[in-house]
Amino acid sequence: MLKIDFVIPLFNEQETLESFHQMLEATKLPEGYSRRYLYINDGSTDKTQSILRKLAEGDSRMVVLEFSRNFGHQAALSAGLDAASGDVVIMMDGDGQHPPSLLPEMLRLHEGGWTKHDRADCSNDSRAAPFTSCFAPLVKLSWSKEPRTSVSSLAAPWRRCVSCRNIIGSFAA
Fold it and tell me: Do residues 17 and 48 lie in contact, with contact meaning Cβ atoms separated by under 8 Å?
């Protein structure tokens, strides 16, 4: 069974956190996957941390990292990636702007060998269109079955995608 780690940075998400987690939990994943949630509280000043504690009670699949202050979205993602050990890692924002309903299709594409790897234009690739609009509004996705050797281009556009453990290892090196 392959393990999916969901890396989810949060900042003052008390209004949406519970419903987002319920939607994520209700999303049916393809057979052969288990899930783990890595929530990173980026110094929230609202009730985000207490909600996380409540959600994590009795759920060994939840890992909560809490920052002492707000260090920013990228620092929270980096901490989540450092803690991730899954075969597949999916980065999502916890405010619901990345709909969990797209996860089954993302995983289906991933299983077929499609991996997001750089900023190349994919405007002619209809398979990437739903993910371009919902999962990376500021960058363009590139889907390819041919792995790239350069990892430097992953810094900004790599966020919010399905990725393999070997890509994360390369990125962190």
Answer: yes
Amino acid making up residue 171: F
Tally of CA atoms within 13 A in the half-sphere of 165 that contains its CB: 10
Give phi and psi for 72, each to the nearest 5: 110, 160
How far from chain centre, in Å, is Cα 88? 10
CB–CB of 13/50 below 8 Å? no
* ∠ Cα 135 84 94 (to 5°): 40
> 112-129, pLDDT tens digit by residue?
776 654 333 444 444 444
Task: Identify the structural domains of the chain with CATH numbers, from first to last.
Answer: 2-172 (3.90.550)
The whole-model pTM stands at: 0.72
